[in-house]
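#struct-help
A.M.: can someone run this one for me? Single chain, 169 residues.
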Amino acid sequence: MLNQSFLADPRRASLLLGLASAGVLAAALVFQYGFGYQPCVLCIWQRWPYVGVVVFTLLTLLFRRWPGVGDALLIASGLALLANAGIAGYHVGVEQHWWAGTSGCGVPGPASSLDQLRAQVMAAPIVRCDEIPWSLLGVSMAGYNVLVSLALAAFAFAAARVAYTRSVR
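D.P.: on it. Structure tokens below:
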């Protein structure tokens, strides 16, 4: 377990978050380009908060001399990761057919004409959000993303709290 002196410096904690986020993005790209698992719309949405965390990490390192900026960016990273857990949780629900996905996740309702049916088929996404292309121990990639996002968000908030309490002493 990381000690509080490590967490007291927002740059170190942010760097760890940035590296973890870059690692998750790299894994997603390996699955996509290395193994041929094409992402659906919700999979793409889940990548953006990780990009945000990487940007927050770079800003923390860039503005390291400004007091409080690193703490605020750790909180922003935690909020981005919580949002990502929400997106991934929604995706898990779509995969489990607990609720319908977005309009970009599948073919819309029935067509009233042949032209409308043709337009729906041509506009349908290549990858459906409600199909699970890969899972490990019964958990899909979106399910693992919920867990990873929540763990990283907890780390970000804990690091921000420790850094803030150290700075006010």
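A.M.: thanks! The mean pLDDT is 85.
D.P.: also worth noting: Residues 141-168 form the longest helix (28 residues).
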